[in-house]
Amino acid sequence: MALHIDDAALLDRIATILADDADIDTLPHAGPDVVITDRWPSPGPIPAIVLSDAPQGSAAIRAGVGGILPRDVTAPDLRLAMEAVSRGFVIMPRGAAGSGQDPAPPVPTDPPRDDLLTARELEVLRLLAEGASNKLIARRLGISFHTAKFHVASIAAKLDATGRTDAVAQAVRLGLILL
């Protein structure tokens, strides 16, 4: 895996953290798999991990950041994050998503529409993301099986999804839920 790191001090710190990993190239590279930075990157085709101690949460994700890690990240956590981000996953520390303290960077794309789904549909969507069946959704929310099935169909239609899994994937892309 190849990394791109602009800042020389940050490059030294990351090289020290990853010194024992021969599969990771931290030298300037023409086609890096992941960009590691300590400032907001410009959205681009290469996923970026931002090292920051300030919780940035969903605003960072909407701005195109592939991951957020604390500045004092450990080597195993950094390796795991790089692998996940290079495969298209988004990572952040627990609690950063709903911190409410997100700085407001320029957002390159339209922010997710909060009014796209009802509050009940968002509850159903979160359960879908956990892999719950219609029967389990009905049981957890205290609704009938048919009502749960209706909500799942409504979510899929509103998100233009082909099924349950696609609905969850679309919701993640739109920033409606985080996995």
Helix and strand topology:
Layout: E1 3-4, H1 8-17, E2 34-37, E3 48-51, H2 57-62, E4 67-69, H3 75-86, H4 119-129, H5 134-141, H6 145-158, H7 164-174
Parallel strand pairs: 1-2, 2-3, 3-4
Q: What is this entry, summarized?
A:
The protein has seven helices and four strands. It has helices at 8-17, 57-62, 75-86, 119-129, 134-141, 145-158, 164-174; strands at residues 3-4, 34-37, 48-51, 67-69. Strands 1-2-3-4 form a four-stranded parallel β-sheet.
Task: Please tell me about this protein's structure.
The protein folds into two domains: 3-86, Rossmann fold (3-Layer(aba) Sandwich), CATH 3.40.50.2300; 119-174, Winged helix-like DNA-binding domain superfamily/Winged helix DNA-binding domain (Arc Repressor Mutant, subunit A, Orthogonal Bundle), CATH 1.10.10. The two termini are 24 Å apart. Helices cover 40% and strands 7% of the residues. Helix 4 (119-129) crosses helix 6 and helix 4 (119-129) packs across helix 7 (164-174). It has a four-stranded parallel β-sheet. The longest helix is centred in the C-terminal third of the chain and has 14 residues, at 145-158. Strand 1, helix 1 (8-17) and strand 2 (34-37) form a beta-alpha-beta unit. It has helices at 8-17, 57-62, 75-86, 119-129, 134-141, 145-158, 164-174; strands spanning 3-4, 34-37, 48-51, 67-69. It is of the alpha/beta class.
